[in-house]
């Protein structure tokens, strides 16, 4: 069930025919786009909008048809809600907007996607909505079986939607929910033996959809057998309870392996998910929800490589600094034989050779936090750097060498772990709390 090393073909049959219909561009979360930015020496244009919302991700339907989804950063005060806007791809002007979408009073970054049936799907808190792609009116609303924040939303090859609730260590088993896409009826649920924090990834082998879930101690595989989910006879133990490392975020599935980083349940994440409703406080949480707080463990940040076939794991500590921490997953670029990892709390971006054993290739002194985009054709990686001056810049890095090719201030003074998306015109879309932006080159 391994993939061809340079195979970028995603199984997109559950999605609208689009280059970027879902977070990270596809179920394998490879974050890759064909083409090139050629950012070095090019003229850069920035359109930045402060909307005072929690901007999470952008997805594409037809050419020129883009959507922004997110929630409200309402840790106290009036009830939060989710929202989706359709926007002009260059001016970022709002062309249509959904009504406020109920979220069960949970504050957390949800997800949107463009389904093969043409509708926009949005999960936020404990609610799932389908929206008309033109005016973003609500077609259907479904309260999910578990009243907790849900993390990620994918469509499988037959169109079935899958999402899951988010649980920290000691909070019981995570529930995966499988939903038919027309009336949003719940088809099935499956409770894992462990909690899970990171988002799900999925792949297909021998005609079977498999969903990969990062648990609190293991990475689990859920196989869809005759339309029903079943825990596969496959898992990988990446940590032990009470170990010196924190929990894993999402997988990037590439080159026959799952690529993850642990040390992800930083203090801000723990504070949000130890309250019910998630992310709602009686008093302003202040620095408790800052990702810049010291890590609640001693371990250095790790990059994990897990074989899709047998679950064998290799790991490397690219920085070796105690108390590492992140809140976004790594990326592997097999065309260049390089995986890229970082440490958000201590700072540092690293390229790691993936030929045989994992070996460091280069190190760059920046502070990334978010989900990147890669352009394998040109060897460019796009990610953020939160500077000492509290400016969240977008940077373009040469993947083989680690050379910094371009730096672009976004206008944002807040960094988080949200998503960059690859546009159609040598551009990327940037999402953060309070601000979002388009950066393009010509």
Q: Strands of the biggest beta sheet: in what spatial order?
A: 4-3-2-1-31-30-29
Radius of gyration computed on alpha carbons:
20 Å
The count of domains is 1
Query: CATH top level?
Result: Mainly Beta
First-to-last CA distance: 41 Å
Q: Which bin fits the share of residues in helices?
A: under 10%
From the 3D coordinates, which CATH architecture would you assign?
7 Propeller
Structural class: mainly beta
Strand portion, in percent? 35-45%
Shape: globular
Let me know the largest β-sheet: 7 strands, antiparallel
In the CATH hierarchy, what is the superfamily? YVTN repeat-like/Quinoprotein amine dehydrogenase
CATH topology: Methylamine Dehydrogenase, Chain H
Question: What is the averaged pLDDT score?
Answer: 95
**Uncertain stretches:** 1-6
Helix count? Answer: 1
Give the number of DSSP strands. Answer: 31
